[in-house]
Write a structure and sequence with these properties.
6-stranded antiparallel β-sheet, two-stranded antiparallel sheet, 104 residues, SH3 type barrels, elongated, mainly beta, 10 strands
């Protein structure tokens, strides 16, 4: 079970986009794609078969999971995430500071 999942609200703690908040759109191993974070310009050739025009396209690049923290909506800050096994055997993610569960 990963500490950060698709759809999580995160805050960037290191790098050029430090302090920015966003939603995880894709997870690829230990790399994350966060909406409107780590934007890069990609020079693309036109592809008429796919209906794709050429030019300079701006898109999100991957950011390492160690450079983001899950955002706690109660405090508005990034917090560490741990795991806890409930009485019915389910394993859920919890904030380390408060013990509050992320997963319903």
């Amino acid at each position: 079970m990963n500490r950060i999942k698709k759809g999580d609200q995160v805050i960037v703690i290191a790098g050029a986009d430090k302090g920015k908040k966003g939603t995880v759109s894709r997870v690829a191993g230990d790399k994350l794609f966060v909406e409107n974070i780590n934007m890069v310009k990609r020079h693309t050739k036109p592809n008429p078969q796919a209906g794709q025009p050429g030019g300079i396209v701006e898109r999100e690049a991957a950011i390492h999971s160690s450079n983001v923290m899950v955002l706690n909506p109660a405090t508005g800050k990034g917090e560490r995430v741990g795991f806890k096994v409930l009485g019915d055997g389910r394993k859920v993610r919890v904030f380390r500071s408060s013990g509050e569960a992320l997963d319903a």
